[in-house]
Amino acid sequence: MTKTTGTTAGALPAVSFTGAVKTFGGVRALQGVDLRIQPGETVALLGRNGAGKSTTISLLLGLNEPDEGTVRLFGAPPEQAVRAGRVGAMLQEGRAVPRVTVRELVSFVARRYPDPMPVARALRLAGITELAERRVDRLSGGQTQRVRFAVALAGNPSVIVLDEPTAALDVEARHAFWASMRSYARLGRTVLFSTHHLEEADAHADRILVIDRGRIVADGTGEQLKRSVGGSLVAIDLAGRGTEGLERLPGVRSVEVRGERARLRTDDPDATVVALAELGAIRGLEVAPASLDDAFLALTARVTEAA
Ligand SMILES: Nc1ncnc2c1ncn2[C@@H]1O[C@H](COP(=O)(O)OP(=O)(O)OP(=O)(O)O)[C@@H](O)[C@H]1O
């Protein structure tokens, strides 16, 4: 497992899970989760359907209690941090949308917190200043999502938790949403978001946690996760030759044939390419680093095999 949990000496972690277990009936949704998130980090939680992402988030927000272990926000139980407005959340489930304007809705939520964010600022950070006087039940899906983001910001939280925030958004709305999230993160605040989009995790998080079957199976930057599964992909046109001997070339871990092309997974792409050149087999040469998709599949598959 790749570990890069940067700790700031003396600072309380924004989020900490110690041996958190959560069972629903016979399902062990979380099987002992340990994690620390420091103030100012933007962290992506990545996992397949049913891996335990929403359960992690529900414990973090105090919506559920762990059966074993502890969950703390700034060293305190989650309910305390939530009541103090230190945590803002954007969850998956939709709510009945009231017939009020965007400004009225955000102001209403802000008034419920002890030290709210000025409403104009929440609207600006969410990129919806120009929608302030529009009714919330007459907005597009992407606009509604950003209103929900402004609502999450209303209490002026130090930590924001976003459960699949861009599900069902089109490309443009996605870009706008991430720009808003980054404006908030630049204030030094902490962000935890869950996603199925590996490229979003790679592009917008400082750190990626991969969860599988209720356990954190990897923790690092996108680069580190890619490196941890090893190597690069070298592809060539076979041009009529066979694949014999290719798997014995330096660095090569596996050889896969797709049509007329051979794809070699290698830990040492330079040595592999030199050896291919010596064989005169570099027609249509292509060298690419392992993708985050490869890393994700390898990390979650390893656990499946071990189970
Ligand atoms: N309230 C509940 N009652 C029973 N089982 C539950 C409940 N909540 C979650 N589970 C189960 O716990 C496991 C983890 O679910 P969780 O919702 O945390 O996964 P997830 O990673 O968020 O998945 P998805 O990507 O599909 O949203 C699953 O097997 C799920 O069926």
Quick tags:
307 residues, alpha/beta, Rossmann fold, Alpha-Beta Plaits, six-stranded mixed sheet, four-stranded antiparallel sheet, 10 helices, 13 strands, elongated, disordered N terminus, disordered C terminus, binds adenosine-5'-triphosphate
Can you offer a commentary on this structure?
Keywords: Antibiotic resistance, ATP-binding, Nucleotide-binding, Transport. It is a peripheral membrane protein. One of its GO terms (cellular component) is plasma membrane. It holds the Pfam family ABC_tran. This protein starts with 14 loop residues before the first strand and ends with a helix. It is α/β, with parallel strands linked by helices. Mean pLDDT is 88; it is low at 1-9 and 303-307. The chain has two domains: 15-226, Rossmann fold; 231-289, Alpha-Beta Plaits (2-Layer Sandwich). The chain has a six-stranded mixed β-sheet with strand order 5-6-7-3-8-9, sandwiched between helices. It has a four-stranded antiparallel β-sheet with strand order 11-12-10-13, covered by helices on one side. A three-stranded antiparallel β-sheet has the order 2-1-4. It has ten helices and 13 strands. Strand 1 (15-24) and strand 2 (27-37) form a beta hairpin. The longest helix is centred in the middle third of the chain and has 15 residues, at 171-185. The structure holds adenosine-5'-triphosphate. Residues 24-25, 27, 29, 47, 49-55 line the site of adenosine-5'-triphosphate.
The CATH class label of the largest domain is Alpha Beta
Query: Which sheet architecture does the biggest sheet show?
Result: 6 strands, mixed
Radius of gyration: 23 Å
Shape: elongated
Q: Architecture of the largest domain in CATH?
A: 3-Layer(aba) Sandwich
For the record, give the distance between the C-alpha atoms at the N and C termini, rounded to a whole number: 16 Å
Question: pLDDT under 50 segments (min length 5)?
Answer: 1-9, 303-307
Structural class: alpha/beta
Strand order of the largest sheet: 5-6-7-3-8-9
Number of helices: 10
Number of strands: 13
Tally of distinct domains:
2
